[in-house]
Write a structure and sequence with these properties.
The complex is a heterodimer of chains A (299) and B (499). Chain A is mainly alpha-helical. Chain A has eleven helices and no strands. The longest helix of chain A has 29 residues. Chain B starts with a strand and ends in an 8-residue tail after the last helix. In chain B, strand 14 and strand 15 form a beta hairpin. Chain B has 17 helices and 22 strands. With 499 residues, chain B is an alpha/beta fold. In chain B, strands 6-7-8-3-9-10 form a six-stranded mixed β-sheet, sandwiched between helices. Classes of the chains: A mainly alpha (299), B alpha/beta (499). At the A-B interface, helix 6 and helix 7 of A face helix 2 of B.
């Protein structure tokens, strides 16, 4: 039994950044804005979380920094896409390149080091009172990073928002047919801006998890494709909040195999490949049948 | 007398073009008022001003006697004006109910489907609409989708409803139902503006009419005072020949044959034969396989099954270019996508499809002088209205673009002409020209396959008619064998209409 609980616990930890990336992707793409800049936004989030935590000595200040930079990256993305009418894929690529380019420079400026930051204060794991005392599954609520619960909370809020509120309904419909929404007197641009900015902050939060919760140091390129994997999970999940979350858990489960295969006769390189290969296979197999928002990428 | 809508002296300019020139448009309460005019006569501009999409340069608007400023569709909506758009503004993946309430959910934050359902249901009862509120839009027929559009407008409490060319997408039967619904709306106290260029339905439904021509209002009449003929004269500005003269000619040899080609997968294969001196018309509601048929005949789809023959030779797997060289001409249904290069000059457009002909090339280069001369000849022969061969084809009017396509395609004296939706979006003058050209080619001995969603056009031109429904040819026969109603029923999938 403990083996299973340990496995679930590990998957949850690995799923945090993927789920946040996937939810961010779903939110943005449901509004009709292609967001392949998630990877870069996460990296910026990871970096600024490190800056905030490092400067103040309090990791929660880092989280705040990440949220702010996420909103700003989203604003930038939305401005280029929606106001200047740039090509959304190109802008996403630009965001990624910008983040990979600027973070080493800033790392150098802030910590005067190459490749990584100083050691940072990080967010300690918590145990949930009461729940932790439940037999067997109580272990899931013991010594967990708070990010697991934050992610769960964000998931629930987004799920209800999309399904049960009028603003969620409008957002979903805008992604399918923006002109149709416009004829109903809905300010489409406002909704898209909102979606992309919130999406940015969620993605940056995923980045913050990597630098100040999962570890206690910012390393260059530490996002390592998780933003793209989140995008893949969003597609695999059919552009729905629930689907994205499930797909992220699945990817996390695949990733966790790495920890179980250490020391096995399979060469390390192959083990490290597993999540990426799984992403590739799943995208090829499922992306054809999954239905994207009809107005995706249109202005 | 207080008008429901009173638009006076409306002028709207786009650059140098005056789309609306000092138009007066007056609608009485609780009448059905038809706004007539050809494409480009300014109907849509005028209605977009009323609906707040455009702002006028001059003029004033009163609604129910009150002067108003309408700056956005939201303003229009607040004044009780609703529009049923020609191109549906519906969300395919959402339910009927969600489509109706979008933008006017009447809740602060959380949706309340039960309350909304009750409100919409009471509308359904009042106007005797029958529709399943939980069905997704993508599963509805075109007629049903239009009903959803009307419900959206009613739900928002519109008292004045604008219908923008509502019958252009419907079968004759669906049109009749719609006209009945519109009359019912008037009986319930609504005021209706009905935009159309079809004279017949205008005379059936309208209480009064305003006719626009070239941006100006040229007539404002009551139905009792006018006739189809009068209205046509107002619209075009000259006498129009409403009937086409066609000589009786005996069909000759079979020129093109389509044998056992499955147009839609998992459906019955199609068989067609087109003869010399004959126009075979394909009737059918848009989206029933016409596009696929067109693409398969010109060689854009390679079918594994079936055969195609042109002048006795098998061309089943021949590419488009060879088909054209063997005497096939193609007037494509999507003029902008397949017929012209909108950003290129007219002579480049004349080269399109002729690029392999010896007279236009030498050692891999284009013989521009010959091409220019050829283009000028064609422009003159077909009366293409242009500033010269260096003009881009995209800046021509629709009618002139079609003349360009016709002149190019017919210049090689083809044996077989595939004319797909040849008059879509053209004005009456241009339509007449296209019809005459096709009939003339028929008298010269061409075999013509006419695909058209306009049933009147098919009936007026064809010697024989085939009906397409869901990718199958469901009936073929001499055009004299079918009545309009029978064809309409078969187009809607009710077989046995002919027997």
């Amino acid at each position: 039994m403990d083996v299973i609980i340990d496995f679930i616990s590990l998957v949850l930890k690995l799923a945090v950044p993927l789920t946040l990336a996937a939810l961010a992707g779903t939110l943005s793409e449901r509004s009709g804005v292609i967001n392949i800049g998630l990877e870069g936004t996460m990296l910026m989030g990871a970096f600024f979380a490190a800056v905030g935590a490092g400067l103040s000595g309090n990791p929660w200040v880092g989280v705040l920094f990440a949220l702010l930079i996420g909103v700003m990256m989203g604003l930038l993305h939305a401005f280029f896409c929606l106001t200047l009418h740039g090509h959304q894929v190109v802008i996403g690529v630009a965001v990624n390149l910008f983040a990979t380019g600027i973070t080493p420079l800033l790392t150098r400026l802030v910590w005067n080091r190459e490749g990584a930051s100083d050691t940072l204060p990080s967010i300690a794991a918590v145990s949930v009172p009461l729940l932790k005392d439940i037999p067997v599954i109580g272990k899931l609520f013991t010594n967990q990073p708070p990010f697991v619960f934050i992610t769960l909370f964000i998931f629930i809020v987004l799920f209800i928002f999309m399904k049960r509120t009028k603003y969620g309904l409008r957002l979903r419909m805008i992604g399918d047919h923006p002109t149709g929404a416009q004829t109903q007197g809905i300010n489409v641009k406002k909704y898209k801006y909102f979606a992309v900015m919130v999406s940015g902050s969620i993605a940056a939060l995923g980045g913050a998890y990597l630098s100040i919760a999962h570890s206690n140091v910012f390393v260059l390129n530490m996002v390592a494709g998780r933003g793209f994997m989140g995008m893949a999970a969003n597609i695999f999940g059919g552009w729905t909040i629930g689907g994205s979350a499930l797909a992220s858990l699945f990817f996390a489960a695949v990733q966790s195999t790495r920890y179980y295969l250490i020391g096995s006769p399979i060469p390390d390189q192959f083990v490290l490949m597993i999540p990426y290969v799984a992403t590739l296979i799943i995208l090829t197999a499922f992306s054809r049948n999954s239905r994207s928002p009809e107005g995706l990428g249109k202005i | 007398m207080e008008y429901a809508i009173e638009m006076r002296g409306i002028t709207k300019r786009f650059g140098a073009v005056t789309a609306n020139d000092n138009i007066d448009f007056l609608v009485k309460p609780q009448e059905i008022h038809c706004l007539l005019g050809e494409n480009g006569s300014g109907k849509t501009t005028l209605m977009n001003i009323l609906f707040g999409i455009y702002t006028m340069d001059e003029g004033q608007i009163k609604v129910n006697g009150q002067p108003v400023h309408i700056r956005s569709p939201r303003d229009a909506s607040r004044l009780g004006i609703g529009m049923v758009h020609q191109h549906f503004m519906l969300f395919n993946q959402n339910t009927v109910l969600e489509n109706i309430i979008l933008g006017d959910e009447r809740v602060p934050f959380f949706l309340d489907y039960e309350k909304s359902r009750k409100e919409v249901q009471s509308l359904l009862d009042r106007y005797e609409f029958h529709i399943d509120l939980d069905e997704k839009i993508c599963n509805l027929s075109v007629g049903m989708k239009q009903r959803v559009e009307i419900l959206k407008v009613l739900y928002r409490g519109a008292e004045i409803i604008i219908f923008d060319e509502p019958t252009s997408v419907l079968t004759p039967q669906e049109s009749d139902i719609l006209l009945g619904m519109i009359q019912n709306l008037r009986e319930q106290g609504k005021t209706v503006v009905f935009i159309s260029h079809k004279l017949g339905e205008t005379m059936t439904i309208g209480d009064s009419m305003t006719v626009l021509r070239k941006g100006a209002a040229v007539a404002n009449v009551l139905r009792e005072e006018t006739s189809v003929h009068d209205l046509a004269r107002h619209m075009v500005g000259k006498e129009v020949e409403t009937s086409l003269e066609r000589e009786e000619v005996e069909p000759g040899e079979c020129v093109f044959e389509l044998a056992d080609v499955p147009i839609w997968e998992h459906r019955k294969s199609c068989n067609l034969r087109v003869h010399e001196y004959e126009i075979l018309g394909i009737a059918g509601v848009d989206g029933n396989g016409q596009m696929e048929l067109e693409e398969s005949i010109i060689g854009l789809r390679d079918h594994r099954q079936g055969h195609q023959y042109l002048l006795g030779e098998e061309i089943t797997h021949e590419p488009t270019l060879l088909r054209k060289l063997k005497g096939m001409a193609h007037i494509p249904s999507d003029r902008h996508k397949y017929g012209i290069l909108p950003n290129e000059t007219l002579c480049r457009n004349y080269l399109l499809g002729n690029q392999e002909r010896e007279e236009f090339k030498s050692h891999g280069l284009i013989r521009t002088q010959r091409l220019d001369r050829f283009s000028e000849e064609m422009i003159e022969k077909y009366n293409v209205y242009t500033s010269g061969i260096e003009q881009t084809s995209g800046s021509l009017s629709g009618g002139n673009q079609q003349k360009l396509v016709l002149s190019r395609e017919l210049s090689q004296s083809p044996k077989f002409i595939l004319a797909a939706q040849p008059t879509v979006g053209l004005d009456i003058g241009a339509i007449e020209f296209v019809h005459r050209t096709l009939l003339q080619k028929r008298e010269e001995g061409c075999a013509i396959l006419l695909i058209s969603a306009d049933l009147s056009e098919v009936m007026a031109l064809s010697d024989r008619i085939a009906v397409m429904y869901e990718g199958e040819i469901v009936a073929v026969g001499d055009s004299s064998e079918f009545t309009r109603d029978e064809l309409g029923l078969m187009m809607a999938g009710h077989l046995g209409g002919a027997s």
